[in-house]
Amino acid sequence: MTTVEPQSLRILVADDHVMVLEMFEQFLSNLPNVEAVTAADLDGALALIKQEGAFDLVLLDLNMPGMNGTQGLSQTIAENGGKPVALLTSNPSAKVVAEVLALGGAGLVLKTTSLKALGNEVRFMAAGGRYIPVELIETQRVKTQEATNTKLSDREMTVLNLLAEGKPNKEIGDNLTLAQPTVKMHVKSICKKLGASNRTQAVIVARDLNLI
User: Fold this and answer.
1) Which of 48, 51, 105, 175 has the greatest CB tally within 10 Å of its CB?
2) How much is the mean pLDDT over the chain?
């Protein structure tokens, strides 16, 4: 029986957070027949499209420099030769979701999505599908409101800022004169309050909420 190989894809990910770019580039590049290219802002993404031609899928961070809300999405759709362009974000409003669909965007990818799901999402959109996460439709507005209203303690904010610098628990503990179990307790509390499943997602959500 002949095995059908997945279609070869060129994916451009644009985000101004180095941590996000590294995570997505590493994962996508390890998928079969996928080439991932990155840019740090909208101008960089548009320059790559002009230089290398249309990509099979472009993922744009909603809040990076140059985007001006969904205007950057519209501009990139026009430049990408009719191939799909989607937004990459954590907590989009209902208005943003509606604008993405109205502008002809391929959909939205949540930065907190599982890596297992991400592979299916990008292939679906690259093939012409329009993707809006079910959990986004049902609960995202509620989760956003809860996260926005959740108050982190001063100590948790300090730990969060050190997490954003990429520091491990031991170094955080040394900096704050805390035992590692105490640091782990703070990280767990931060993740719970922000609705994140791990420290990386907590930093991403916190940045999108302008907490750091």
Assistant:
1) 105
2) 86
Mean pLDDT value of segment 94-102: 83
pLDDT tens-digit readout, 105-145: 999 998 888 888 889 999 999 999 999 887 666 555 555 55
- Decide which of 3.10.290.30, 3.40.50.2300, 3.40.1280.10, 2.40.100.10 is the CATH code for 9-137: 3.40.50.2300
Which range among 19-28, 50-59, 72-81 shows the weakest confidence by mean pLDDT?
A: 19-28
3-state per-residue secondary structure call for the chain = CCCCCCCCEEEEEECCCHHHHHHHHHHHHCCCCEEEEEECCHHHHHHHHHHHCCCCEEEEECCCCCCCCCHHHHHHHHHCCCCCEEEEECCCCHHHHHHHHHCCCCEEEECCCCHHHHHHHHHHHHCCCCECCHHHHHHHHHHHHHHHHCCCCHHHHHHHHHHHCCCCHHHHHHHHCCCHHHHHHHHHHHHHHHCCCCHHHHHHHHHHCCCC
